[in-house]
Amino acid sequence: MQSVEVIRVGAGTAERARDAAAAEEPLEIRLEGSPFVVTMRTPGADRELAAGFLLSEGLITSADDLGTIRHCGSESAGTEGNVVDVTLAGAASARVEAALASRRLVVATAACGVCGRRSIDDLMTNLPPIVAEWSMPAAVVATLPGRLRDAQSVFDETGGLHAAGLFDRSGALVVIAEDVGRHNAVDKAIGSQLLAERWPLGDTALFVSGRTSFEIVQKAVVAGIPLVAAVSAPSSLAIELARAANLTLLGFVRGDTFNIYAGEQRILL
């Protein structure tokens, strides 16, 4: 968080005051010393963010593929703490050169989770279908927004962060992550479980604040998460991918109501 000066305007009044703003800074992710991507994010949980991002990009498939993730300095002044260098192990290390050659180095905004990829078809290549057969009662689904909101400590101060939470099949919160980018929050949540070697995630559900875009569903499919829900609407492409991947996708989860867009077999009505 950062303290900023604002002018609060009321009914016939205006006064200077201090307010808390959500921090947003660039993070450069390097692969074995070579630049890979720059993403805008809320500082914190950078190792988890890098791990989750590389998983969704297909560079790694498990914690065994990771060598080290460390913060490093940069030749540019003021970037200390905003650069992480990742080394990979085994077969993943051999994929680094191809990944660097096929990807454009771009700055991804906080709203963009797939900006560096060349096509939607590229994203959908080799995504395995979800095979989990468990189900969640509708009454449990209805509790997820409140449980996520109760755990959003930074949002209480700034009002400007997205959240992603992983829940177990009973609806208990496993981990929460907050970030200015909804896709970053998902990467941080998934990456935390990867680094903790609590993997795969076939027994968890992902709940996100805001809308559900294609890249959020894509990240869930790669992580093997069978159920994704949100307080707002999914995009048409998110629905298309969820149906193709046999993933349960819920939207407008508010109070006791929600819409099922895909995978209705996992919801007990």
Q: What's a concise summary of this model?
A:
The chain has 269 residues and is an alpha/beta fold.
Number of strands: 15
Return the CATH class of the largest domain: Alpha Beta
CATH superfamily of the largest domain, called what? Cytidine Deaminase, domain 2
Which fold does the CATH topology of the largest domain refer to?
Cytidine Deaminase, domain 2
Give the biggest sheet: 6 strands, mixed
Order of helix and strand elements from N to C terminus: EEEEHEEHHEHEHHHEEHEHEHEEE
Strand order of the largest sheet: 10-9-11-12-13-14
Radius of gyration, CA atoms, in whole angstroms: 19 Å
What proportion of the residues form beta strands (DSSP E)?
A: 25-35%
State the shape.
flat
Low-confidence stretches: 109-120
Number of DSSP helical runs: 10
Distance between the termini: 41 Å
Second rung of CATH, namely the architecture of the largest domain: 3-Layer(aba) Sandwich
Overall structural domain count: 2
Mean pLDDT, to the nearest integer, reads 85
User: Approximately how much helix is present in the residues?
Assistant: 25-40%
Q: Which class best fits the helix and strand makeup?
A: alpha/beta
